[in-house]
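Translate sequence into structure tokens.
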Amino acid sequence: MIERFGDGRDWFYERRLGLFVHWGLYAVTAWHEQEQWRRGVSRRDYGRLIDRFNPVRFDPEAWLDLAQAAGMEYITFTTKHHDGFCLWDTDQTDFKVTRSPYGRDVLRLLADACHRRGVPLCLYYSVVDWRHPNYPNQGRSHELSGPQVGDDPDLPAYLAFLKAQVRELCTRYGEIHGFWWDMNVTGVEDTAINAMIRELQPNAVINNRGFDAGDFGTPERDYDEQKGEVRVYDRLTEHCQSIGRESWGYRADEDYYAERHLMQSIADALGKGANYLLNVGPRADGAMPAEAERMLRRIGAWYHGVREAFEGADPVSDLIDNRDVLLTRRGDTFYVILARSPYL
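Result follows.
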């Protein structure tokens, strides 16, 4: 059994299913959150999308209502993705939501709603940055092929920018329950960065994609080939998956997973002792896509009926040899979970 922290981070053991939200300028063109990189869009042309970002239908209460209907008990929000666009009123760059026609601090609105309703808020932050002139793009995973015109690659200078932004996120928005790093392909290891987060936000769990091992692992979609071999996780783990196969941000012609597939994926992760973070990309106007909302409500109807098999239950599949099922235990009650779809 995984040993608990014995401090405020233990909330992560109790709230097992969360909502991931990928949102930013890429919602305007409704193709992919990595459009700038994948389609070779110039920094200048991509930057013009800020003039079209005006999410007048953004309602954080509606987002949290939908999460609650889906059985989700925390939210992880993309404050800055690889494109460098910031969804809070940062002092470190003008490439931010308060310089868009919307003009309001999106993170402030979401954080205030989460605090009112007692919903833990976790913050996603990309280390890769296609906008910042000091970020040393070298063509590594999810980087631009190299410096752009006018850039001054300087990793120490970029890390100073990054630390200043992390400090803002950890001091301006009340209690934060998690920090979700992504794409530290620089190879830099620096335990002081996570130590700063822990000092400022002691109840925040931190993932393993930043500058040290963090608190928990993050298998993504079905990329981890060993995921199917795990029966009981021996380290705190959170699976992440999007409801669409093609993208994490909003895509107008998204190829959605079957609800049955997502339900089975959730059951598989939770049955092994992991958490599960299911992603939706809101539209550019701030509303959730109708199909995504329908799917989350259907998943919630299922999850509310089976959550007792996961929440407060221990994974004990090591007690049996049958690889077609998983086993959890709550006191004297055992729950059998189908790990594979039955077939004739």
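Note: The CA atoms of residues 22 and 225 lie 25 Å apart.
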